[in-house]
Specification:
Length: about 240
Amino acid sequence: MWMKAIVITSGILISEAIWQMYNAYKRSRRKAVSDGKARHKRKIFEVMFFSKESARCRPHIDLNAPCGRKDCAVEHLRKLVQYLDSATETLDVCMYFFTCPLLATAIVRAHKRGVLVRMVVDESMARNGDSQATKRFYHNGIKPKMKQLDTLMHHKFAIIDKALLITGSVNWTMSAFFGNFESLFVTNEQAAVMPFVNEFERIWTMLDSINAEQSNAVTNTNINSNSNTGKDTLT
Ligand SMILES: [Zn+2]
């Protein structure tokens, strides 16, 4: 009898614990969404510069703290991570070259919390020996789209929740952040964001149709080759 009571009590306690955990999760999601909405309400126009001087910031990246220098590259990177961490629904990234582990981690983090992540990169990035970031994306279930095209996929932009745009000259690589003269512009001004949203969709659809054409071509080649084989056998 007492055994039955223990089982029932344990069951009730476990159910209660699961229910409390579920409520805590729902509350944190609601807060994230409301924080995201609040962020999108205030106007954001932020300009960041990187320069040869940024190389001096690289030693303090592990401290994850700014050094007080004007245009501290670590501070800029921290802001980028914060923006990526603020994504609640979608994250679209179109980047010629992407190897920065800090930003790759933030993108994987977004994917893991349920954000729809879509990435387009230039195919040369995947062929690069230093494409640890690409491998990391694949290992975590993110499949960047890439295709050998006649021209370079030279864009460098990201769109968060279709409401915040990050764009500029800089590829998301450590060498670009810590040693090049580069710029970044962040804004939630819809007049600037929407053309990039449309451009991303256009590129995404274009890569889909190229892939479909190529797989059709492969199928047709196989069919022709099979039918030719049949014909040869008949004659
Ligand atoms: Zn610094």
